Amino acid sequence: MKKRMKPLIAALLLLPLLSACRQPEIENLLVFDPSMATTAPTAAPVIQQVPVDPPVTDWDAELNPAQEEDINPEGQYVPGLGPQPGYVFAGATPMPLNPIDMPTPTPRPKLTFTYREYDVTRMGISFSAPDNWEVDDSVDGIILLQQPEADVLDNYRAFLSIEIRATNATLSKAEMRTQLKGILETLRGGYVTWEQKVEAERTLMQKTGFYNDYRGVMMDGTIVRGRVQVASVNKKTVTVHISCPGGFNEDFMGGVYTKLRNTLKETR
Questions:
Q1: H or E element at residue 250
Q2: Reduced 3-state DSSP string for 211-231
Q3: Which residues partner with 143 through β-bridges?
Q4: Cα(90)–Cα(188) distance, integer angstroms
Q5: What are the CA-CA distances from residue 66 to residues 22, 96, 170, 185, 198 (Å)?
Q6: How far is residue 196's CA from residue 204's CA, in Å, rounded to a whole number?
Q7: 147: nearest Cα among 165, 138, 135
Q8: Which residues contact 156 (CB under 8 A, 6 or more apart)?
Q9: 73: buried, middle or exposed (CB in 10 Å: 19+, 13-18, 0-12)?
Q10: 16: Cβ–Cβ under 8 A, 6 or more apart, which residues?
């Protein structure tokens, strides 16, 4: 099967939208029953309301993603730290609940990564990420790490990007949420189906930020999962985006993203 790679950097450079248009939800289909109009000309046609089956989804709208994952000390990487007993994770959790996202029919072994430190002098940051991922720093203010072609899983090449842009002042929470919504609205244009949660507050580099998870299906049926986080750090906007094949979401979010978030720091 032909391996695909999305045009990542072009999407990262698009300015976030100030508002997102929401499509109306269709709750019922109106279906005419032709059998009711065969004998009684005076009788009014009968209209039946047939409920539409809810979409297949691995989101739980009743859970609050704002309460998850920050059970370890801020900025401290704690290997193997998981949920507390009885704790239910919400929508931004890397839990592949949807059967079509699961590694079926044969369970696949859990992915493991070897990490190394990346020191990006021109951006004034350092962080830990998989040591064999390919680096593209050709665009000013952005570093992009991509999974090697030889390691591609489920027809999708995972990637991790960090973008840093200078601002005149620290962004407000409302401004950060607007930035996050705009980025997600831009990303959704590349998928035939799209789902996302309500954004949740979470720190990045010890500063206030907001993040959200998404799930998209490409035209060829490839399932993609991802996370975008935006934070305002010392008059700079920091945007982190990780994207991976849906069936391995837990491995990438619990491994690559967690390692990055707990090691990302300024060096100047």
A1: helix 249-251
A2: EEEEEEECCCCCEEEEEEEEE
A3: 162
A4: 21
A5: 23, 19, 22, 21, 9
A6: 20
A7: 135
A8: 4, 222, 224, 244, 245
A9: exposed
A10: 178, 179, 180, 181, 182, 183, 185, 186
Convert the pLDDT of each residue in 61-120 to its tens digit.
Answer: 443 444 444 433 333 333 333 333 333 333 444 444 454 555 555 667 889 999 999 999
Q: How far apart are CA 182 and CA 195, in angstroms?
A: 15
Provide the 10 A C-beta neighbour count for residue 8.
Answer: 17
| pTM over the 0.85 mark | no
**End-to-end CA gap in the chain:** 45
Single-letter residue type at 157: R
Q: How far is CA 196 from CA 40, 80, 179, 187, 260, in A?
A: 49, 27, 15, 11, 22
Return the number of other C-beta atoms located less than 10 Å from residue 213's C-beta: 25
Whole-angstrom CA distances from 254 to 42, 117, 142, 181, 222 are: 65, 18, 23, 23, 21
